[in-house]
């Protein structure tokens, strides 16, 4: 049993409130997942810049990282640290080389996410504490996804927390379990995908990334997953421009959507949406089984 929340902003005037609203939604899901928590926030475009979110149990590892990376790539790199995470900003054309440098020279760091808009923060701990550590309530953006985890099939670790990001500006959160993730992981490794954990949710994220790398849209990749992923699941998937929702054909995991002219919101339960502005007049419904929903800018 895990908790998922998601918020897609339609009204630009509401973007500065994204973090505050998402933080409140996440807090309602603490009892569905007290082990660990995480969230992805999609901020405004920063023309020509890429963002790489890194994590270390020892934040002193961030000292001098921007200078070392900038010297290696011959470019300006900025670093903004938040507790155990830091966001590097650099020329988007050099993002691939930057990840190679980090992998070779800073193996103690873990890359949480990379892209032009995404930032991911996740840690072991009670969800409200995790949100507070990273000042989620002060963040702004166009959309965001949050997750509270109750581990059922893999260890409670920072890397095992959600969201999982396996492609640029992509992430996935998951409530449920996949029964064929080991076979899928072997197949995806043969296709060149890499994995940080033994978590089944990371396999789902990598599966979607692999399909989109082949040219499929997110919607088509989600449609394909209905035949290839075996188990019970509710997915919320973030992309650069929006987010998608999918439940398995049996749909035994709870889910609710709400839409107004200002936002689209997702929650594992309605209580996650109850504090949103205008929720009393929103269109509220339970997403259908085996049906792809997607909103984009």
SSE map:
Layout: E1 3-9, H1 18-27, E2 36-42, E3 49-55, H2 65-73, E4 78-82, E5 85-91, H3 95-105, E6 110-115, E7 118-124, H4 127-133, E8 143-149, E9 171-178, H5 181-190, H6 200-213, H7 218-228, E10 231-238, E11 242-247, E12 256-259, E13 263-267, E14 283-285, E15 293-296
Antiparallel strand pairs: 1-8, 1-13, 2-7, 2-8, 3-5, 3-6, 4-5, 9-10, 10-11, 11-15, 12-13, 12-14
Task: Provide an overview of this structure.
The chain is 24% helix and 31% strand. With 297 residues, the protein is an alpha+beta fold. It has two domains: 3-44 and 121-296, Glutamine Phosphoribosylpyrophosphate, subunit 1, domain 1 (4-Layer Sandwich); 46-116, Alpha-Beta Plaits, CATH 3.30.70. The strands form three sheets. It has a seven-stranded antiparallel sheet with strand order 7-2-8-1-13-12-14, with helices on one face. A four-stranded antiparallel sheet has the order 4-5-3-6, covered by helices on one side. The longest helix has 14 residues, at 200-213. It is globular and about 50 Å long.
Keywords:
297 residues; 7 helices; alpha+beta; globular; single chain; Glutamine Phosphoribosylpyrophosphate, subunit 1, domain 1; seven-stranded antiparallel sheet; four-stranded antiparallel sheet
CATH-level-2 architecture of the largest domain: 4-Layer Sandwich
Rounded to an integer, what's the Rg over CA atoms? 18 Å
- Mean of pLDDT: 95
Order of helices and strands: EHEEHEEHEEHEEHHHEEEEEE
């Amino acid at each position: 049993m895990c908790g998922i929340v998601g918020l897609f902003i339609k009204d630009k005037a509401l973007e500065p409130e994204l973090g505050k609203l998402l933080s409140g939604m996440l807090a309602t899901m603490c009892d569905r997942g007290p082990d660990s928590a995480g969230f992805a926030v999609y901020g405004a475009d920063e023309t020509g810049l890429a963002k790489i979110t890194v994590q270390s149990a020892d934040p002193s590892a961030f000292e001098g990282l921007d200078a070392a990376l900038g010297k290696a790539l011959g470019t300006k790199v900025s670093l903004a640290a938040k507790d155990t995470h830091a966001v590097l900003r650099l020329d988007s054309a050099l993002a691939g080389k930057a990840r190679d440098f980090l992998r070779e020279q800073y193996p103690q760091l873990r890359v949480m996410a990379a892209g032009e808009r995404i930032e991911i923060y996740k840690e072991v701990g009670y969800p409200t504490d995790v949100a507070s550590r990273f000042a989620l309530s002060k963040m702004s953006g166009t959309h965001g996804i949050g997750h509270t985890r109750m581990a059922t099939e893999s260890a409670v670790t920072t890397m095992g927390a959600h969201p999982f990001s396996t492609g640029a500006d992509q992430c996935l959160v998951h409530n449920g379990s996949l029964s064929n993730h080991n076979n899928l992981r072997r197949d995806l490794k043969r296709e060149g995908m890499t994995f940080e954990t033994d978590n089944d949710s990371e396999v789902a994220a990598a599966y979607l990334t692999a399909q989109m790398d082949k040219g499929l849209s997110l919607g088509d990749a989600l449609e394909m997953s209905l035949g290839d992923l075996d188990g019970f699941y509710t997915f919320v998937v973030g992309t650069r421009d929006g987010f998608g929702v999918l439940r398995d054909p049996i749909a035994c995991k709870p889910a609710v959507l709400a839409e107004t002219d200002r936002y689209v919101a997702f929650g594992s339960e309605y209580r996650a949406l109850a504090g949103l502005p205008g929720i009393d007049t929103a269109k509220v419904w339970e997403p259908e089984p085996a049906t792809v929903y997607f909103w984009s800018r």
